[in-house]
Amino acid sequence: MRTRGRLLIGAAACALAGQSPAAPPAPGHPLIGTWQLSLPGTQCVETYEYRADGTAHTLSAEEATDTQYSVAATPDANGSYVLTETILRSNGKRDCSGQLTPLGHPVTLYLAPLRGGFLLCFDVALQRCFGPMTRVPARPAPVAAPKG
After folding, report:
1. Domains of the chain
2. What is the mean pLDDT of residues 36-52?
């Protein structure tokens, strides 16, 4: 996504400059898991996998990125979770907007809860948003075949 890529442009530079990693999210944080975001006006869907260790993996068209993130344990006064992401690695392919997402600096986003998902917003006033991001159900563990 071009806007997200521009916002995340310098994220890895800080990480690579020796800044310590962000603290992982609180156990059971509602962001942990896999989410999808359908981009308006396109057939493209982005997938975000937020892991409990404070890392994430994103797929957007042919692009794959690995990020480090931190997220507020509780919503702010507006009811949104403040999320800071830093892109550490990219496969160098084009995202849903046809752009290349460069590595960059930390970017702050605002996650506004909405119908079991989140709006992904670029401003605290929640005026510039995409969404909703919807949770991808966890796959059930494979069942072992009975012995005998």
Report:
1. 2-135 (2.40.128)
2. 93
